[in-house]
Design brief:
heterotrimer, A mainly alpha (about 290), B mainly alpha (about 220), C alpha/beta (about 300), A: about 290 residues, mainly alpha, MetI-like fold, 2 domains, 12 helices, flat, B: mainly alpha, 10 helices, Glutamate ABC transporter permease (chain A), membrane (chain A), ArtM/GltK/GlnP/TcyL/YhdX-like (chain A)
C-alpha cells in the first residue's frame, strides 16, 4: 500500500489551513533549533578559522582523508566479495538435506550474527595470531570480521530468496531431469540473487559504516586517518568528525538511493525482492 | 576458568553486561517512541513533517554509530552544554542512550514504514470512507496490523541495538567490550577463553531472543 | 612441535647473521656498520641486526602523539621517530629503509611477538610484566605520570583530584593507576588523547593524565599556548624502552651501545631539540647506568 496517498484524503480548505499552520509552526521550531545550535557552536568558537582551515589544504586531503576513504572502500569492497561467497555457501549449506551439513552451517550463521563485530575483530587481531602462530595484518582482521558478520546476514537473505522462488519451478526442473545441483545453479540461485540485490546494496552501506571499527586495530580507514590522526595534527577533532560524517553520509546516501532504485526495478521485473532486514542494516555492532 | 575465578575480573564481567542490559533497555524504549513518531511523520499529509522524517532517517542511518556517539559527547554535552546527569558515568550513560536511540529510531521508522506497506490499501480506503481522520486511520486500522507485521524486523533491530551498545565504550563507559579489552590486556595468554566467554554470553542471550521474535511473529501474523 | 625444523633453521640463520654483524661492527658504537647494499643478508633472517643488514627495518610507532610519534601526511615525526633514526644509523642502514608501522598501546607486545614489527618505539614503558613477553633496550627516556590542567587550575597534585573529572585513555596504565590509587577522582575515558585534550579545552574535564612527556607534547602546541600547564610532579616512573623480540639479546645489547654513543656524541640532544625541545624544555641527561641488561 502506498502510505503517502491512501492514508488521508485530498486536503480540503480546512485541512489545508491546518497543514499550513503545522508547516509554519514546525518549520519555525526546526529553524529556531538549528539557529540555537549554530549560536552555541559559534559561542564555543567551533567555527574559528584555524579549526576549519586544514580542510582547505590539499595536503590534508591528499595525505589523510583520501587515503582514509581508500582504506574504507578497499576493506568494504574486499569484504563484500568474500561475504557474498560466504553467504552463498552457507545458505546452500543451511538448506541442505543432510543434517550434518545444515546444522553446523546454521550454528555458524547464528553465532556470527549474534556476536558484536568489535569483539570479533579484536579477537581476530589479538587472539587468532596465537592459534596460527603468525600475525594477522589489520586489513585482514577488519575484512575477515566484516566477512563473517555480513556473510552470515547475506546467508539468511539468500536462504529467504531461494525459498521465495515458487516451488513449482524446481519441481518442473526436477521433472525435466535436472539434478539438485543444476536446479540450484540454473533455477534457484539466479532468481534469489536478483531478489537479493537491494539487500546486497544495503549491506554494502553497513560494510562502509562498519569499517570504522578498523581504527581499533590501527587499520588506516576514514575514521582513523581522517579524524584521529588529523585531530592529533590540528586539534580539531569536532571539525574533523563533522567532515568525516558528511563524507560517510554522502557515499552511503548514494548507495541507499541505488538500493531503492534496484528495489523498484526488481519489483517491476516481477520478482519479489527479499526485504531489507532493518536490524542487519544497523551494522554488526561494537564501535561502528 | 582462571581469569574469571578472580572475583575482581568476574565482577567486571558482570557489571560490563549489566551496562549492556541497561543501555539496551533504555534505548529500546526511547527508540521505539521516536521511531513511531518518525514513521507517523513520514506518512503524514504535512510536507514539512515528511521532509523532517526523511532527513532524520537519511542522516542518522548513513553515519557510523561511533561518530553519532562521539557527537553526543562533543556536540550535545561539550558544545551545546546539555548535561544529563551530574555524575560523570551516568552522564555518559545517558548521552550513549540518546545516541543509540536517535540512530536506532531511524531503523525502527523504516521497519514500521515497510510494515505499513503490508496493510492492503483497501483497508485504509475503507477507514477513510467511514470518515476516520488520518490519525484515526493510522491508530485504529493501520498501525495495529503493521505492528504485527513488524515484530520480526523489530526483533532484529533490538538484537542489533544490543550489540551496538558496545559502542558507548568509546566515550568511556566500562561496558562489556571495554571490560573484554581490559581483561585481554591484562591476561594476554588467555585471549581465546576471554573471547569465547564474552562472545558466548552475547550469543547465548541473543540467539534465543531472535528465535523468540521469530516464533512471536509467526503466532501473531495477520492471516490474509 | 610441528615448527621444530623451521624454527631450528631460522635460529641457526639468526645466530650466523648476528655473529657476522657483530663481527663487522666490533662494538664500536656508531661505527660505519656492515654497510648497506653490500651483502644485504638473508631476507628470511630474523633479529634486528640481521634485518637492518638487509636494508629494511619495521618500527612500530604511535601515530597520534605530537612531539613523540605523529603521522604527518606520508611521514612520521617526533622524539620516538628520531630515536628510530639514530638506531637505524647505528645499525648501519639508511633512514629511508625504516618502515614505520602505526601501533596502538594494546598491540605492541603482539606485534613484536608475532613479527609484525622488528622494533617498537612508541612511548613504551618497561615493566616486569611486559619483560616476560618482549625484550627491552634503553630506557632512552625517564617519563612519569603527571597531570595536564588549565593554566588557572588549583590542582597541584593527584591527591587533589577527589571529586574532579580526570581524562585518560581506555585500558592505559595511567587510567588504571588513577582508578586504583585516587579513587575519589571521576575517570573519563576515551580511545585517544586528542579527545581528552579537546574535553580539557572545553572544560568538560578538570585534568588529563598520562606520562609527562606526552602531556608536554600537547602543551607545547601553538593552539594551546598559555592555556594548559603540566603540573610537574610526576607520581610514577615510566622508563621508556625500545621493545624487540624476547630472544634477540644480541640486537638489544647493540641498541644499548648505540644509545650510549648517542648520549655522548650529541645526537640524543639534537633529537630532543628537534622535537620535544621546541617547547623550551632543555634536553634531559640520558642516564646510561640505568640501561637494561637485555636478559
Amino acid at each position: 500500500m502506498n502510505g503517502e496517498t491512501v492514508l488521508y484524503d485530498h486536503p480540503g480548505p480546512r485541512a489545508k489551513v491546518r497543514n499550513a499552520i503545522l508547516t509554519v509552526v514546525f518549520g519555525a521550531l526546526i529553524l529556531a533549533l538549528l539557529y540555537w545550535i549554530y549560536r552555541q557552536f559559534d559561542e564555543k568558537g567551533q567555527f574559528t578559522k584555524v579549526l576549519w582551515e586544514p580542510f582547505l589544504q590539499g595536503d590534508v586531503w591528499k595525505n589523510f582523508i583520501l587515503p582514509g576513504i581508500e582504506g574504507t572502500l578497499k576493506a568494504a569492497a574486499t569484504a563484500m566479495v568474500l561475504a557474498l561467497a560466504f553467504g552463498l555457501i552457507f545458505s546452500i549449506g543451511r538448506l541442505s538435506e543432510h543434517r550434518w551439513i545444515s546444522v553446523p552451517a546454521g550454528v555458524v550463521v547464528e553465532f556470527f550474527r549474534a556476536v558484536p563485530l568489535l569483539l570479533m575483530i579484536f579477537f581476530i587481531s589479538f587472539g587468532v595470531p596465537f592459534l596460527i602462530d603468525s600475525p594477522v595484518p589489520p586489513f585482514w582482521s577488519v575484512v575477515i570480521g566484516l566477512t563473517l558478520y555480513n556473510g552470515s546476514v547475506l546467508a539468511e537473505a539468500f536462504r529467504a530468496g531461494i525459498r521465495a522462488v515458487p516451488t513449482g519451478q524446481s519441481e518442473a526442473a526436477y521433472a525435466v531431469g535436472m539434478r539438485k545441483s543444476a536446479v540450484m545453479r540454473h533455477i534457484l540461485v539466479p532468481q534469489a540473487a536478483r531478489a537479493m540485490l537491494p539487500v546486497i546494496v544495503s549491506q554494502l552501506v553497513v560494510l562502509l559504516k562498519d569499517t570504522a571499527l578498523g581504527y581499533i586495530v590501527s587499520y588506516s580507514e576514514l575514521l582513523q586517518l581522517g579524524v584521529n590522526v588529523v585531530a592529533a595534527n590540528f586539534f580539531n577533532v569536532i571539525q574533523a568528525a563533522i567532515v568525516a560524517a558528511v563524507l560517510y553520509i554522502v557515499v552511503n546516501f548514494a548507495l541507499t538511493g541505488l538500493a531503492n532504485y534496484l528495489d523498484r526495478r526488481t519489483r517491476r521485473s516481477g520478482i519479489k525482492p527479499v526485504p531489507v532486514d532493518q536490524g542487519a542494516a544497523m551494522g554488526g555492532g561494537g564501535n561502528v | 576458568m582462571p581469569v574469571f575465578s578472580d572475583p575482581t575480573n568476574f565482577d567486571a564481567y558482570v557489571s560490563g553486561f549489566l551496562w549492556i542490559l541497561k543501555l539496551t533497555g533504555a534505548s529500546a524504549l526511547l527508540a521505539l517512541v521516536l521511531g513511531v513518531l518518525l514513521a507517523g511523520m513520514r506518512v503524514s499529509p504535512v510536507p514539512v513533517l515528511r521532509w523532517f522524517g526523511a532527513a532524520w532517517v537519511n542522516i542518522f542511518r548513513n553515519t557510523p554509530l561511533t561518530l553519532i556517539i562521539f557527537f553526543c559527547y562533543f556536540g550535545l554535552y561539550a558544545t551545546l552544554s546539555i548535561t544529563l546527569s551530574d555524575d560523570l558515568i551516568l552522564n555518559n550513560f545517558w548521552l550513549g542512550v540518546v545516541g543509540l536511540s536517535v540512530y536506532t529510531a531511524a531503523f525502527v521508522c523504516e521497519a514500521l514504514r515497510s510494515g505499513i506497506n503490508t496493510v492492503p490499501a483497501g483497508q485504509a480506503e475503507a477507514a477513510r470512507a467511514i470518515g476516520l481522520t488520518f490519525s484515526q486511520t493510522l491508530r485504529i486500522v493501520v498501525l495495529p496490523q503493521a505492528g504485527r507485521a513488524v515484530i520480526a524486523p523489530l526483533g532484529s533491530v533490538l538484537i542489533a541495538l544490543c550489540k551496538n551498545t558496545t559502542i558507548v565504550g568509546t566515550i568511556g563507559l566500562l561496558e562489556a567490550s571495554n571490560v573484554m579489552k581490559q581483561l585481554i590486556n591484562d591476561n594476554g595468554d588467555q585471549v581465546i577463553l576471554i573471547f569465547l566467554v564474552f562472545a558466548g554470553t552475547f550469543a547465548a542471550v541473543l540467539i534465543p531472543v531472535g528465535y523468540f521474535f521469530g516464533w512471536l511473529a509467526n503466532r501473531l501474523a495477520v492471516k490474509r | 612441535m610441528r615448527m621444530t625444523r623451521v624454527a631450528a633453521t631460522a635460529a641457526a640463520a639468526v645466530l650466523a647473521l648476528t655473529m657476522a654483524a657483530c663481527g663487522d661492527d666490533g662494538g664500536s658504537g656508531t661505527g660505519t656498520g656492515s654497510g648497506t647494499g653490500t651483502g644485504s643478508g638473508d631476507s628470511n633472517a630474523t633479529g634486528v641486526i640481521a634485518k637492518a643488514a638487509s636494508g629494511t627495518l619495521k618500527v612500530g610507532v604511535k601515530a597520534d602523539q605530537p612531539g613523540l610519534g605523529l603521522q604527518t601526511g606520508t611521514s612520521y615525526e617526533g622524539f620516538d621517530i628520531e630515536m628510530a633514526k639514530i638506531i637505524a644509523k647505528g645499525l648501519g642502514m639508511q633512514e629511508s629503509g625504516i618502515q614505520y608501522v602505526t601501533t596502538v598501546s594494546a598491540n605492541r607486545e603482539p606485534y613484536i611477538q608475532q613479527g609484525t614489527v622488528d622494533l617498537v618505539i612508541a612511548t613504551y614503558t618497561i615493566n616486569e610484566e611486559r619483560k616476560t613477553k618482549v625484550n627491552f633496550a634503553g630506557p632512552y627516556f625517564m617519563a612519569g605520570q603527571d597531570l595536564l590542567v588549565p593554566t588557572d587550575s588549583t590542582i597541584t597534585a593527584p591527591e587533589q583530584l577527589a571529586g574532579k573529572k580526570v581524562c585518560s585513555v581506555t585500558g592505559s596504565t595511567p587510567a588504571k593507576r588513577i582508578d586504583e590509587k585516587y579513587q575519589g577522582a571521576q575517570l573519563q575515558l576515551f580511545d585517544a588523547y586528542s579527545k581528552c585534550i579537546t574535553a580539557l579545552a572545553g572544560k568538560q574535564v578538570d585534568a588529563v593524565t598520562t606520562d609527562d612527556i606526552i602531556l608536554a607534547g600537547y602543551a607545547s602546541q601553538p593552539q594551546f599556548a598559555g592555556k594548559f600547564k603540566v603540573v610537574g610532579k610526576p607520581f610514577s616512573e615510566e622508563p621508556y624502552g625500545i621493545g624487540l623480540a624476547k630472544d634477540d639479546k644480541a640486537s638489544c645489547d647493540k641498541i644499548n651501545e648505540i644509545l650510549k654513543a648517542a648520549a655522548t656524541d650529541g645526537s640524543y640532544k639534537a633529537a630532543w631539540d628537534k622535537t620535544l625541545g621546541k617547547s623550551g624544555t632543555p634536553a634531559p641527561e640520558l642516564d646510561t647506568s640505568k640501561f637494561t641488561n637485555c636478559a
